[in-house]
Amino acid sequence: MQITAEEKLMYGVMKAIYDSGIPIDFKGSMVLKACLLEAGFSEEIRHTVDIDANWYSDVPPTAEQMTDSLQKALERSNIDLAVNLYRMYGEGRSAGFEISDRDTEEILFTMDIDVNRPAAMTKIYEIAEICFRGVSVDQMLADKVSAVSGNKVFRRIKDVVDLYYLSKVFPFHGTNIRKILKDNGRTLGEFDGFLHRKDELEHAYDKFRLTGDVNKPTFDDVYVAVKLYIKDILPKDE
After folding, report:
1. 238 confidence band (pLDDT: 50, 70, 90)
2. What are the backbone dihedrals phi and psi of residue 213, each rounded to the nearest 5 degrees, phi first?
3. Contact status, residue 144 vs residue 162, Cβ threshold 8 Å
4. Distance separating alpha carbons of residues 53 and 210, to the nearest angstrom
5. Residue 59 near residue 75, CB atoms below 8 Å
6. What is the pLDDT of residue 55?
7. Is the pLDDT of residue 39 over 80?
8. Distance of CA 219 to the CA centre of its chain
9. For the range 6-11, what are the long-range contacts, defined as Cβ-Cβ under 8 Å and sequence gap of 24 or more?
């Protein structure tokens, strides 16, 4: 599995934030790639152009506090990029940051940060001498299964694809996943879209694009693998 130049830069930013002590844990595609790399997964997976994270603090941070903290973290690590807040966080909405080249002002990638959401299970990842704290594999599985269980699955095809990748290297323990979801105050949907609207799901999958040289498996291969992988948490009559 290759790490693109953009991903190397993003991992460098994640390390700088981790080293700074800002109360941030990472999640999303960058963590998915790290955990698959650690597990020895060699196939190319989908690329991303953003960083996803959780910010935890006793007092909700202001826009200025978040921006200044992130900017200083980059400067301490000699990363010459500019941080700009373009969306403030709120109820059900993450804070959005643009990370850009200081000279050209080109936006290189974005960072979405949720603030004071329910605490997630985390671990320390290390790839290519870069360390950061990210959500655990089981937490990632819980998040993705939750997304797949409802009818927003048609807009979250990437979560189905990610479950396919994860099925190659990690066991799935339904009991653990249910506990994590309960601890996070979340309930599972009925998996109606995933189980009973397969044609619509295939249509959404066909429209989903994997950039670069990433191989796109057939829909049937993905669907069969994911359904088997998460069978412990599907409705019993399935």
Report:
1. low
2. -95, 20
3. yes
4. 23
5. no
6. 97
7. yes
8. 22
9. 6/47, 6/49, 6/108, 6/109, 7/33, 7/47, 7/48, 8/128, 9/108, 9/109, 10/51, 10/109, 11/127, 11/128, 11/130, 11/132
Q: Which residue has the tokens 């941030």?
A: 24
Q: What is the mean pLDDT of the chain?
A: 93
pLDDT band per the 50, 70, 90 thresholds, residue 128: confident
Structure tokens at 38: 């650690």
Exposure class string for 65-82: b at 16+ Cβ within 10 A, else e: ebbebbbebbeeeeeebb
Q: Of 80, 114, 73, which is closest to residue 100 (Cα–Cα)?
A: 80
Rounded Cα gap, residues 37 and 207, in angstroms? 27
Torsions phi, psi for 214 (to 5 deg):
-75, 125
**Residues comprising the chain, all counted:** 238
- The conformational region for residue 142 under phi > 0 = left, psi -120 to 50 = alpha, else beta, is alpha
What does the alpha-carbon distance between residue 24 and residue 21 come to, in Å, rounded to a whole number? Answer: 8
Backbone φ and ψ for 95, nearest 5 degrees, come out as -75, 140
Strand ranges, E, within 67-177: 81-87, 95-101, 107-115, 122-127, 130-135
Place of tokens 């655990």: 136
Distances (CA, A) of 31 to 50, 153, 217, 232: 11, 21, 22, 24
E strands along 58-217, which residues?
A: 81-87, 95-101, 107-115, 122-127, 130-135
End-to-end Cα separation, the chain, in angstroms: 35
pLDDT at residue 171 in the model: 95
